[in-house]
Amino acid sequence: MSNVLPFNPDNTISNAALSYMLKHRSQHLASRQGNEALLSRCQAHLMMTFDITADRATKEAALALAEASHSGEVWIDVDATCAFYTTLRTKDGRQIIVSADQILHAITDFFSLQ
Q1: Is the C-alpha dihedral spanning 9, 15, 19, 22 positive or negative?
Q2: CB–CB of 76/87 below 8 Å?
Q3: CA–CA distance, 92 with 45 (Å, rounded to integer)
Q4: At what angle do helices 54-69 and 34-50 cross, to 10 degrees?
Q5: pLDDT tens track, the chain, 114 positions
Q6: Which of 29, 36, 69, 75 is least enclosed, having the fewest CB within 10 Å?
């Protein structure tokens, strides 16, 4: 991902969150809890800087982490997604359809191992 940030004046909080993630993510790579600490620090930064609620800051920080962490190898095809499944498109042109149940099981299994 490029470190050049698009600026949209309507998304100042989003831009600040992404900027924070890009600037500070390397400080958290060595720790197993690195992303949790990074999210927490970004959330606190956004709350202090923009006087927003914890819920809004948490959401903005999570969205920014997702964007900053994206590898560029796979994308969600929003035009081929509904409440029951999503379609993933890979860089090499593959299409993978994943049900909502499969996503839930994968997330549950992943976090139970942590």
Answers
A1: negative
A2: yes
A3: 38
A4: 130
A5: 445 555 554 568 999 999 999 999 888 665 667 788 899 999 999 999 999 999 999 999 999 999 988 888 999 999 999 999 999 999 999 999 999 999 999 988 877 765
A6: 29
CB burial of residue 67 (10 Å; 0-12, 13-18, 19+): middle
Cα 54 to chain centroid, rounded: 17
Q: Tell me which residue has tokens 């998304």.
A: 11
Positive or negative: CA dihedral 43, 83, 103, 92: negative
How many angstroms separate the CA atoms of 61 and 82, rounded? 25
Report in angstroms the alpha-carbon separations of 21 from 10, 54, 75, 85.
19, 17, 20, 29
Please, which residues bridge with residue 99 across strands? Answer: 85
If you search the block for the tokens 């839930």, which residue do you land on? 104
Angstrom distances, CA of residue 88 to CA of 8, 24, 38, 108: 27, 29, 27, 20
Cα–Cα distance between 69 and 59 in angstroms, integer?
Answer: 15
Angle formed by the axes of helices 54-69 and 12-24, to 10°?
60
